Amino acid sequence: ATERTLSIIKPDAVAKNAIGEIVTRFEKAGLKVVAAKMLHLDNDKAGGFYAEHKERPFFNDLVGFMTSGPVVVQVLEGENAVATNRDLMGATNPKDAEPGTIRADFAETIDANAVHGSDSPESAEREISYFFSNDEICPR
Ligand code: CMP
């Protein structure tokens, strides 16, 4: 079914000037960008996004990293968008990511892992509305 997912190109990948190469991978896989913006997150916005990880030992480092530079948040739309994007990204830890995946090619560490993607259609809905109002999404 046609789905939407939230993608974040993280500060490490933006700093590497890899925005275009990453978006090209989405497009070549049949995902369409239906919303996009560049943001420099503050502690509240990044911490709220990752609220489910609040008690994890890596939470402070995660928020510190996600506020270290600008990110590009996008809504991707397409057939099985959530799973398609997760396949394109590869494993959370780039050391475990399959060759040819975004994280294998652009990420260095589990913290600086280039991209975020929603892990289910339910989290996609929540994550999309965390960053975008309905009138910022352009179905096409
Ligand atoms: P992301 O998909 O954005 O969701 C949470 C992030 O926490 C994850 O990518 C990683 O970048 C980061 N992280 C750091 N340490 C861990 C860990 N041990 N397990 C899962 N995620 C981690």
UniProtKB/TrEMBL annotation:
The annotated active site, in chain numbering, is H116 (pros-phosphohistidine intermediate)
Give the PROSITE patterns listed for this entry: NDPK, NDPK_LIKE
Q: Report keywords, A-Z.
A: ATP-binding, Cytoplasm, Kinase, Magnesium, Metal-binding, Nucleotide metabolism, Nucleotide-binding, Phosphoprotein, Transferase
- EC number of this enzyme: 2.7.4.6
Which residue numbers delimit the Nucleoside diphosphate kinase-like domain?
A: 2-139
Q: Which of the seven top EC classes does this enzyme belong to?
A: transferase
Subcellular location, record wording: Cytoplasm
Q: What InterPro entries has UniProt attached to this entry?
A: NDK-like_dom (IPR034907), NDK-like_dom_sf (IPR036850), Nucleoside_diP_kinase (IPR001564), Nucleoside_diP_kinase_AS (IPR023005)
| Family classification | Belongs to the NDK family.
How does the record describe its quaternary structure?
Answer: Homotetramer.
PANTHER family listed in its UniProt record: NUCLEOSIDE DIPHOSPHATE KINASE, NUCLEOSIDE DIPHOSPHATE KINASE DDB_G0292928-RELATED
UniProt protein name: Nucleoside diphosphate kinase
Taxonomic lineage is:
Bacteria, Pseudomonadati, Pseudomonadota, Gammaproteobacteria, Oceanospirillales
